[in-house]
Amino acid sequence: MSFSRRNWLKASAALTAGAAFTGLSAERVSAATTAFRRSRLSREAQIAADMPVIKARLFANENPWGPSDKAKAAMTNALNDSYMYPFMAQRQLVAMIAKEENVSPDHILVGAGSSEMLLAAAIHYSKQGGNIISADPSYDYLMEAAAGWGTKWNKVPLNKDYAHDLDAMEKQVTADTRLMYVCNPNNPTGTIVPSEKLRSFCEAVSRKTAVFVDEAYIDYLGDVKTHTMIDCVRRGQNVIVARTFSKVHGFAGLRVGYLVAKPDIIKQLDPLYTGGMDMSALSIQGAMTSYLDKPFVQSVVQKTVESREFLYKTLKDEGYEYVPSQANFVIFPVKMEAKKFSEEMMKRGVGVRNWQFGGKQWCRVSIGTMEQMKTFAGAFKEIS
Question: pLDDT, tens digit, for every residue of 140-159?
Answer without folding.
Answer: 999 999 998 889 999 999 99
